[in-house]
Structures are given as structure tokens and as C-alpha cells.
Amino acid sequence: MNFETPKKYALLIEQAHLVGKEMFRPISRKYDRAEHEYPVELDLLASLLDGLNESGALAGAGAGKLKRGGGKSEAASGVRNGANLATVLSFTELCWGDVGLALTIPRQGLGNAAIAAVANEEQLARFGGRWAAMAITEPNAGSDSAAIRATARLDGDQYVLNGEKIFITAGSRADLTVVWATLDATRGRAAIKSFVVEKGTPGMQLLRLDHKLGIKASDTATVAFTDCRIPKTNLLGDPEIRAGEGFAGVMQTFDNTRPLVAAMAVGVGRAALERTQELLRAAGVHAPYDKSLWRASAAEAELYRMEAELESARLLTLRAAWLADNGIPNSKEASMAKAKAARVANHITLRCLQLCASVGATETELLEKWARDSKILDIFEGTQQIQLLIIARRLLGKSSSELK
Fold first, then answer.
1. Which of 5, 15, 298, 357 could serve as a FRET partner for 168 with CA atoms 20 to 30 Å apart?
2. Beta-sheet pairing, 176-182 with 132-135
3. Which pLDDT belongs to residue 270?
4. Contact, 356 vs 279, CB < 8 A?
5. Catalytic residue (choose from 333, 365, 381, 402)
6. How many CB atoms lie within 10 A of CB 70?
């Protein structure tokens, strides 16, 4: 593995860092306080990103560009650094600025990643350039996506959706929602498919917006579907229920988006660590890297450990994204990156808050906000425990029914 960041992404990283520094940081506290108020400043950023993506200047960066590479034969002809790696690198910098604001950039929703992963060419053209949320979790189906009970029934040229979805990121703001539902609850995982529902479709009702611990700039919605009719052509992927295949088509979305969540964690973890180093230096605590751990002060030793942990999380994240770009199966690596980075970010933000004592706990510093924001990264897109379970299955060669 080449540990150097590809030179072609230098401008992308610089631009994303400037957005995090000059746009996100100044309004971070504003939208932390004004929960559910839409950050209008992001409209200009979204338009800029659209233009740069269309011109090719951002090398395809963005959640809507996440897609598995061409396969091993293509990878064998040369290493590809594509949209997955570009998006991971850019979102690390954006989330160094603010996680909640990064999650609410128009047309960068997790639903956009789902569409990019499994949509056909006609659907990509029809849904392209629109903001898509993703609706998976239900009141009785959280970490176990196979327990989904929302239903989709084919009626002529339409599917009829019924069910309730909770914790939908950008659920009230997005133009589209990718809804996971089952065609036949008796057929298990194989019957779970994803469907695109346009905002305002009759039978789709916004029930509430949730108040949260962190990422308050991002809206989190609960939506009900009652005899909600959508065109047959809005089903993503294969409409056939094929026994034994599970729901690989929609699960591939996670293989693309879990490295993205890991990148978010690396970004906020780095932000907290850098700010803590600045505050400690101002207080006379230096970490000059010329001492062994047992000769360093407790604070210095803790900084060394956190830096090492963050770097290992970053490298796992880059590896998982690189595998996706090169068409190589990355389910294990995606879960490893997400589990490691999310845990590390949560530990770093909380530990930095503790190291800075009362200074870090006040609203004059963003450290306390980063500590709150980081927790969700260990929960959504599959909890820490689910990631460890997936990793164990891959290492031991066990199916989901064999290792629960």
C-alpha cells in the first residue's frame, strides 16, 4: 500500500479544508443552537460542488458518485484512485469543520450513495442532480436490517409502500427518499429491496423531526408510508426475489458508505486532537516526540497514543475506499474502518474534552460540540457491535444465520 495521498487530490483536499475552515467553523455553533433551521449558506456550496463535479475538477468526489470499480480485471491493469477515495478525502476535511453541516449538504445524502451503488443508467439519469435521503431503520428494526417490516406490493405498474421509518438523515429536506422495504416478509433477506420515493408523493407523511445530542445542523426525520404509490421503475436493482442471494444489491451501499462515515470520524477526531494540542501548548504542555512514553508526562503520552490510533483509523479508511475503487470486495474492510474510526473518534473527542478541563466544556470552544457530534458516528450505518459481528463473519467464513 502506498501511504502517500495521490497528488491529483491535493487541490480537492485544500478546497475541502478551506470550506471546513472558512464556511463551516464560523457557523458551526449557530446551527448547533438553531436545531432544525436549514443552513441556507450551504446552497451556494452545493451549487459550487455541482459545477466542479460536472467539470471534472473534483475527480468525481461526492456521495452521489460512490460506486464500485470495474472489477479485478480492471484493477489488474493498473491501480485506480477514484470517486470513493476522493470522497473519503474530501469528507475528512469537511467534517474537520463540522459533521452536522457536512451531513446536510444538498445532493450529498446517503440516499445518493444508494442510488449510485445499484441504479441502472435510466435511473441514474432520472434521479441525478437531486438530493436523496435513505430510510432503513424502523421502530422494531434497527441494527438488524433483515428485520425490516415495511412492505412493497406490486399493483400493476406501481408499487404500494406501507410502513414507518425513523432516524432518516435529511428526511425532511431531501427531494427523494430511498426506502428499504420487503416484497414478501416470509422470504427473508432476499425479498428486501430499495425504492425511490419523491418528496410530496401522496401517502408519504412527515411525522416529526427528532431533537438530538449532536449533529443538530442535520435534520433527522420520522416518516410514515400509507398506501404510498410509486412507479414500478423506481425500484433499484433486481426486482426478482432470488433465494440464497440475500439482499446484496442494497447492502453494497453500506460497503461504499461505511468508509465515508469512517472518514467523518477521522475528520472530527483530528479536529479535537489539533485543538487540544493548541490549548495545551498555550498552557505550557508540549509533546516534542523526543521522549519515550514512560518518560513523557501523562498528557504527552495520551496525545501520542491518540495520534497513533487516529492514524491507524485513517489508513484503514483509505484502504477500504481504495478497494471499492478497484472493484475488490471490501465488506470486511469497510466494517473494520467504520468500527475503528468511530470508536477512536469518540474516545479522542471525549478524552480531549477531559484534558482541557473546564476550557473544553464551555461554549467558547467547539470541543464539547465535537464530543457530542462524534457519538452518532459509532451508531448509524451499523453500530460498533454490528461491525464487529460482520468482521467476525468474514474472518470465520460464517453466514449471518450461523453467527448471530
1. 15
2. parallel
3. 98
4. yes
5. 381
6. 14
Opening angle at CA 329, ends 136 and 177, nearest 5 = 20
Q: Which three cell numbers stand for residue 344?
A: 477512536
Residue type, 178: V
Grid coordinates representing 27 are 457557523
Cell 445524502, residue located: 109
- Angstrom distance (rounded) from CA 238 to CA 247: 10
CB 349 within 8 A of CB 371: yes
pLDDT of residue 296: 86
Give the three cell numbers for residue 92: 475528512
Q: Is 121 annotated as catalytic?
A: no
| Beta carbons of 152 and 169 less than 8 angstroms apart | no
> Grid coordinates 408499487 are at which residue?
159
pLDDT of residue 72: 47
Q: What is the pLDDT of residues 70-94, one digit of tens each?
A: 544 444 456 788 889 999 999 999 9
Nearest-5° Cα angle at 277, 14 to 261: 50
Please state the rounded mean pLDDT for residues 12-39.
Answer: 96
Q: Give one DSSP letter per residue of 343-403, joined into a string.
A: HHHHHHHHHHHHHTHHHHTSTTSSHHHHHHHHHGGGTTTS-HHHHHHHHHHHHHT--TTT-
The region of weakest confidence among 21-30, 74-83, 308-317 is 74-83
Listing DSSP states for 225-271 in one string gives: EEEEEEEGGGEES--S--TTSTTHHHHHHHHHHHHHHHHHHHHHHHH
Mean pLDDT across 31-54: 86
Average model confidence (pLDDT) across the chain: 90
Measured distance CA(39)–CA(101) in Å, rounded = 8
Choose from 140-149, 196-205, 282-291 the range with maximum mean pLDDT.
196-205
- Cα radius of gyration rounded to whole Å, the chain: 21
Q: Is the pLDDT of residue 329 over 50?
A: yes
| Domains defined for the chain, CATH in brackets | 7-122 (1.10.540), 131-236 (2.40.110.10), 248-396 (1.20.140.10)
Residues 132 and 174 sit within 8 Å (Cβ to Cβ): yes
